[in-house]
Amino acid sequence: TLLAGGDSVAVFSGDLPFYMMVTGANNSIAGAGGVATPITLLDSSAHLTLGIFGKVSSDIALGGGEVNLTNDLKFIENCQFTGEGIVRGDDRTITFGAKDVVLTGTVTWIGENKTIVFKAETLLTSSMMVNGDCVLSGNGNNLLIHDTGAIIVGKDSQLTLRDVSIKGLKDNNI
Q: What strands lie across the sheet with 47-52, from one edge to the other?
């Protein structure tokens, strides 16, 4: 299914069963349900407002586009944002699943009072940029920063590390 600008999908219950492709602005997926199939932003013009209450059991490919969160987001297992793009959301929590995950997406996180939660060991192989105030919560797990990985904290921004051990720390990767 293609959301091509100004399109909306409501998920009242259960999981969204359709593969979603997004291009253009003012697209939205919202509702009480979750997402069971991939969401792919096709290019940098793609903007998606995501306001689901259920869990996400597939990757969200950013494709250079932007996702605006209007609710907390819960990925299951090793699902994540892939590719490069922007994730916005004030006062939102993004939770990654309970299995070890390799974060490959180059994501710019924008927003105030944002929390990113890792429930398992996490390997960062790409750049994670934080703009605004963000808490990185590890639930006692390790965040391993690969040689190609980095955490970049933007100007006038703050990153708080909570209950996480950082491994692979080097001179210029945080």
A: 8-10, 27-31, 47-52, 66-69, 84-88, 106-110, 127-131, 150-153
